[in-house]
Write a structure and sequence with these properties.
Structural class of chain B: alpha/beta
CATH topology of the largest domain in chain B: FAD/NAD(P)-binding domain
Low-confidence stretches of chain A: none
Oligomer: heterodimer
CATH architecture of chain A: Orthogonal Bundle
Structural class of chain A: mainly alpha
CATH topology of chain A: Non-ribosomal Peptide Synthetase Peptidyl Carrier Protein, Chain A
Strand content of chain B: 15-25%
Largest interface: A-B, 17 and 19 residues
Distance between the termini of chain A: 15 Å
CATH superfamily of the largest domain in chain B: FAD/NAD(P)-binding domain
Number of strands of chain B: 18
CATH superfamily of chain A: ACP-like
CATH architecture of the largest domain in chain B: 3-Layer(bba) Sandwich
Largest sheet of chain B: 7 strands, mixed
Helix content of chain B: 25-40%
Radius of gyration of chain B: 22 Å
Strand content of chain A: under 5%
Number of strands of chain A: 0
Chain lengths: 88, 464
């Protein structure tokens, strides 16, 4: 998967968790928390959905890496570059 | 071998089951009764649909709201806001002798009604709201503070304090007489700041959504599957034994049976302190009418009434029931959408709830039990019509449930509706893979129970 694919995967997950959010205006360099009304339960879901869909295991100490879209994609890139994107 | 066995297919067990099944766990949901729902259920009698439990869903927030318990649980369970088909209340009231304070969804109407009825309490009420806003959920000492004391320090009109306590205790106070301030703040927000709503089809719509989702995700539901005991080996819960002798094994067990009830199920000789169980139980009369409540001049959704200036919240000392306070609920009086005539209930319904003594109701011999149900039905209606138009000559069918009925459906000691007063917030037990959810873990009501199931599943059963 390319970085763009990974970004798409994360967007898919966000759309699933927060269907009422307008994600088209999402700014990659700004923390999710400052743009979307996500709480800790939602962050857990990002981790859990990545595990469910791509078997990507994210240890708890790495959760802070998922703060923004930019940091999430660069964190996931080495873990996901060899995976095929699946349509959800 | 299951990943998780869940005891009880009520709101909390179903919600936990959906979370775990969504993340590919092998989940078995065990229900003693022949139907799901526990305290919040539904049945058919003489050709009519009835609800138990639900008067109103609390914590109503409109579509698009991103914060608050309702929005959070919809996201966690992957439901759309529309799936619950929530219709807002018409409006409700707190009725005491000579003073009636109305409230709707959002704090606006309550605030102006309090200014009207208690003009000198305007600033004090604002101070109370500030204290509720400032209240910090995470502080245990603050949680257990006496609400009566906080109200006495904040309001200089004792009647107003009693009137505010009445609906909030009625809809979620497990403790007798006083209320934990933390619980008061939670209930204040969920009823006065957010609000009340109901699906036209009642609690069955919510339950059907939950069970359909659980099954779609591969969850397994077993009805008539009472748990006889939780089998413990070397400090771990290894599985359960059902009433019919079937043994099931699991990595983790989540029980919504109640705290005392769960301890009693463990076969490791765990001490059981029955005094910890909740004490507050109720009777409820359901009257089906040949007309709509609104045609009799009754437009309110819920009326919380109390016939004297102080509000007494404890088990009846002398009788089967305490008729001095009660709740009048009309499921007709919601804004189901009046332009479309198909969106209404087929008949008028009035439900009256009163405080009842579990011990007295369960000690009655069978024939007296039937007789007392009839007798107290009449008394309940007579008590309620002091605060609403008299509907009694319009009644075409009735039903009546007692603490005995509640105990049969929920298996909770004392028929306790709001669980034990001492909540087990962390959901943990003496065994490292046995957890509790439901009213004894945390919040009450449908939204509270669902939130409880979700949060305990997230915290202990999903990770790792």
């Amino acid at each position: 998967m390319t970085n763009d694919d990974i970004r798409e995967v994360v967007l898919d997950i966000l759309a699933d968790i927060a269907p009422d959010e307008d994600l088209s205006q999402l700014q990659d360099d700004v923390a999710f928390r400052d743009q979307l009304e996500l709480d800790s339960m939602d962050f857990l879901d990002i981790v859990m959905e990545l595990r469910k869909r791509y078997r990507v295991q994210i240890p708890e100490e790495d959760y802070p890496q998922l703060a923004s879209m930019a940091s999430t994609t660069s964190y996931l890139e080495p873990l996901m570059r060899d995976l095929e994107k699946v349509e959800s | 071998m299951y990943d998780t066995i869940i005891i009880g297919a009520g709101m909390s067990g179903l919600a936990a089951g959906i979370r775990l099944a969504h993340y590919d766990q092998r989940v078995c949901l065990l229900e003693r009764h022949y139907t799901i729902g526990g305290l919040n259920s539904f049945y058919r009698l003489r050709g009519r649909d009835y609800d138990v439990g639900l008067h109103a869903l609390t914590n109503f927030t409109p579509k698009g709201a991103r914060t608050g318990p309702l929005a959070r649980l919809l996201r966690q369970l992957r439901f759309r806001w529309e799936d619950f088909e929530l219709a807002e209340q018409v409006g409700s009231a707190i009725a005491f002798p000579d003073v009636r304070v109305r409230f709707g969804n959002g704090i606006g109407l309550l605030t102006s009604e309090i200014e009207r009825a208690f003009p000198n309490q305007r600033e004090n009420f604002q101070r109370l709201i500030n204290k509720i806003v400032d209240y910090d959920d995470l502080n245990d000492d603050l949680f257990a503070m006496s609400t009566r004391q906080v109200l006495a320090e904040t309001l200089t009109e004792p009647l107003l304090a009693e009137m505010l306590l009445c609906p909030l205790m009625w809809y979620g106070n497990a403790r007798e007489d006083d209320m934990d301030f933390g619980q008061f703040c939670i209930m204040f927000r969920s009823i006065f700041v957010e609000g009340l709503a109901r699906p036209l089809a009642g609690v069955r719509l919510i339950l059907k959504n939950l069970i359909r989702r659980f099954r779609q995700l591969g969850g397994e539901l077993r009805l008539r599957a009472g748990v006889e005991r939780i089998h413990v080996e070397d400090g771990r819960a290894v599985g359960v034994v059902l009433d019919n002798g079937t043994e099931l094994r699991a990595r983790n067990i989540l029980s919504s049976a109640g705290w005392v009830e769960t301890m009693r199920l463990c076969d490791d000789g765990q001490p059981v302190d029955v005094d910890q169980a909740g004490k507050m139980s109720f009777v409820e009369s359901v009257s089906v009418l040949d007309t709509l409540p609104s045609r009799l001049g009754h437009h309110e959704t819920i009326v919380f009434f109390n016939d004297h200036p102080t509000f007494d919240w404890h088990r009846p000392a002398e009788h089967l029931c305490d008729m001095r306070t009660g709740v009048i609920c009309s499921p007709n009086n919601y804004l189901y959408g009046d332009s479309d005539t198909s969106r209404h209930l087929p008949e008028g319904v009035i439900r009256i709830t009163a405080i009842a003594s579990y011990d007295r109701w369960t000690q009655l011999p069978e024939e007296e039990y039937t007789l007392e149900k009839l007798r107290w039905y009449d008394r309940l209606c007579a008590s309620a019509v002091r605060f609403m138009p008299d509907y009694r000559r319009h009644v075409v069918d009735v039903d009546f449930f007692t603490p005995r009925t509640i105990q049969r459906f929920t298996w909770h000691d004392n028929g306790a509706v709001y669980g034990c007063p001492q909540k087990h917030w962390d959901g943990q037990t003496h065994l490292r893979n046995l957890f509790v959810c439901g009213t004894d873990q945390g919040m009450v009501g449908i939204i509270g129970a669902i939130t409880s199931g979700i949060s305990v599943a997230n915290r202990y059963l999903l990770t790792g």
